TrEMBL record:
This protein's record includes keyword Ligase: no
SUPFAM superfamilies (alphabetical): Winged helix' DNA-binding domain (SSF46785)
Gene Ontology terms for molecular function: DNA-binding transcription factor activity; transcription cis-regulatory region binding; zinc ion binding
Cofactors required: Zn(2+)
Keywords carried by this UniProt record: DNA-binding, Metal-binding, Repressor, Transcription, Transcription regulation, Zinc
PANTHER family in the cross-refs: PEROXIDE-RESPONSIVE REPRESSOR PERR (PTHR33202:SF8), ZINC UPTAKE REGULATION PROTEIN (PTHR33202)
Family from the record: Belongs to the Fur family.
Name under which the protein is recorded: Ferric uptake regulator, Fur family
BP GO annotations: negative regulation of DNA-templated transcription; regulation of secondary metabolite biosynthetic process
Manner of cofactor binding, per the entry note: Binds 1 zinc ion per subunit.
Entry binding sites for Zn(2+): 91, 94, 128, 131
Organism: Fibrobacter succinogenes (strain ATCC 19169 / S85)
């Protein structure tokens, strides 16, 4: 917990107990949780925690480059404390999001003159290994048709 508090301090964030808990949780999971998932995971040990506190803490983490938000177009954001360059793969079967540790393409060479590129995000969609093994062609075709 002390290490997490130090990281927050180093980024100009006052390390309140709630902020430390949220950031520590985000750093410890690889599931790319939503605000509600973080809130529900932390609530049993932090009964005074509110969704608003979780949301505000995540906004602070984003503003201070300690987390990234992921928008897969399904109506809510997911969060990742791993800010290193990598890609994300969302399974169309189970809905899980996986890290893919390859560097995103270098788009800095193709942005118009005078533009400054701050981030490149690459989202991939398909079926994870478990869903691929369980998958039937009809299920995948129906989902693909819905997406188009």
């Amino acid at each position: 917990m002390q290490e997490t508090a130090s990281i927050l301090k180093d980024h100009g964030i006052r390390p309140s107990l709630q902020r430390v808990c949220v950031y520590q949780y985000l750093r410890s999971v690889k599931t790319h949780p939503t605000v509600d998932e973080i809130y529900m995971a932390l609530l049993p040990k932090n009964p005074s925690l509110s969704r608003t506190t979780v949301y505000n803490t995540l906004e602070l983490l984003l503003a201070n480059d300690l987390a990234i938000s992921l928008d897969f177009g399904d109506g809510f954001l997911r969060y990742d404390a791993d800010c290193s360059p990598h890609c994300h793969f969302k399974c169309k079967g189970c809905g899980k999001v996986f890290d893919v540790f390859v560097a995103p393409p270098d788009c800095s060479k193709i942005v118009p003159a005078g533009f400054t590129l701050k981030a490149t995000l690459l989202y991939m969609f398909g079926l994870c290994d478990k869903c691929s093994a369980d998958e039937t062609p009809t299920r995948w075709q129906a989902q693909t048709e819905l997406d188009n």
